[in-house]
Amino acid sequence: MAIEAPQRPVPPPPGGFLGYRGRERPTGGFELWSWLFMRISGLVLLLLAVGHVLIMHVWDDGVERVNFGFVAARWQSPFWRTWDWALLVLALIHGINGLRIIVQDYVRWPGARFAVDMAFFVIGFGLFVLGTVVVFTFDASQWPGTT
Amino acid sequence: MAKRKSDVGTLYKGSPGQWSWLLHRITGVAVILFLFAHVVDTAVVGWGPKAYNRVVAVYHNWFVQLLELGLVAAVLYHAINGVKIMLFDFWPASARHMKPIALASTLIFVLAMIPITIIIGGSILESAGVT
User: Are A57 and B72 contacting, i.e. CB atoms less than 8 angstroms apart?
Assistant: First the structure.
């Protein structure tokens, strides 16, 4: 009777480091939804944020042309108001959820972690309210002759 | 998802992706911090042309435009690297080709930044009164 010789270690999956199993991901609950949200919103932001940056900063003189009249003309279109509002909301949630994940890595004490997270949530919510009010209530006709 | 003590506060040095992981974090934080300021400066448009034009004049300063170029680079890097992450996540077999894909995404970023740097760079030189 022989104690079986230890098997040779299982070779890494083909293709090296990650093989076919893919990267580590949360297995369920809130963190899985957060994981999924980051990817879906990331895909939408690929259009909204990259488009915004190219239109506002690169195309046609970039920010040099941006002033009150430019915004007033742009926001005459519901399309751009919707774009800007969707960008505001998705970028805030995506960004603040990203900060939450980074905070998990660098803030150890639970009380401090909670405080830092809450500070970001409160800032994010305040900016969401401010941005939403401005995008939907802006009315250039209050300042005639500016567009 | 760091939960254990040993996971906290360490610099992740685990894989070929460590540098893009770090850059993804840095660019992400830079963009969200800028967004905090940007929502406020845009909101000033609700206070009329005098107030808003004074605020956006800041963006016409050459040094701020230099930061703007950095912002555009950060958004683009985060976006392109994000696509790479999603590729590995939703199509794990692609991770077999991690190195060439990482190289390709870096290349796309660098190639995109060439015309952008020329365009914004020209604007910076103009604002600085060089040209």
Answer: yes
How many Å apart are CA B86 and CA B80, to the nearest integer?
A: 10
pLDDT at A63: 81
Task: Tell me the average pLDDT of chain A.
Answer: 86
Instruction: Report how far residue A66's alpha carbon sits from residue B55's, in angstroms, rounded to the nearest whole number.
Output: 11
CB A87: neighbour CB atoms within 10 A? 20
**Contact by Cβ (8 Å): B114, B122:** no
The rounded distance, in Å, linking the Cα atoms of A143 and A124 is 30
In this structure, what are the phi and psi dihedrals at residue A136, rounded to the nearest 5 degrees? -95, -15
Q: How far apart are CA A94 and CA B36, in angstroms?
A: 13
Q: How far is B22 from chain A (nearest CA, A)?
A: 11
Contact check, Cβ <8 Å, B89/A23: yes
The domain of A93 spans 30-138
Closest residue of A to B80, CA-based?
A: A46
Split at pLDDT 50, 70, 90, the class of B39 is very high
The beta-carbon neighbor of B32 closest among A20, A95, A131 is A95
Which CATH number belongs to the domain containing residue A50 in this structure? 1.20.1300.10
Comparing CB atoms, the residue among B46, B85, B98 nearest residue A134 is B46
B39 lies in which domain range? 17-127
